[in-house]
Sequence to fold (135 residues):
Amino acid sequence: MTNAYGTNGEAREAVREAAETLKDAAGDVRAETKRAAKRAQKSAVAASGALAEAATTFARDARSVVEDNVGKARREAEIQYGKLKVQAKQRAEEADVFVHERPYVALAAAALAGFLIGHLMSASRSNVVYLRDDR
Fold:
């Protein structure tokens, strides 16, 4: 029998050739897809390496800035500590002179301060006892 492709055998042969061509094309697409996936994987690995390097650099820079700030704060604290130490010594010397010059006034001031502190501390809890006469 004759058709547009010739005989039935020729038509079958044309279909086989088309199937082989499609099979080869599918294989080519599969191989190219695998190559593209490998390239994408290599690019992702390279990008992750660059990202890790950037994160490491950022962390190193941040650490440097924090160390600088901590160093500055420490130096400032040492300066302030030195100033307060000198002031405390001066105040202690003034108090010592005052106590030696006016011992009774110093004793009265200490007693008054003790009384006030004791009164304030005991004011927070009530020590009042109420007695009831049950006669």
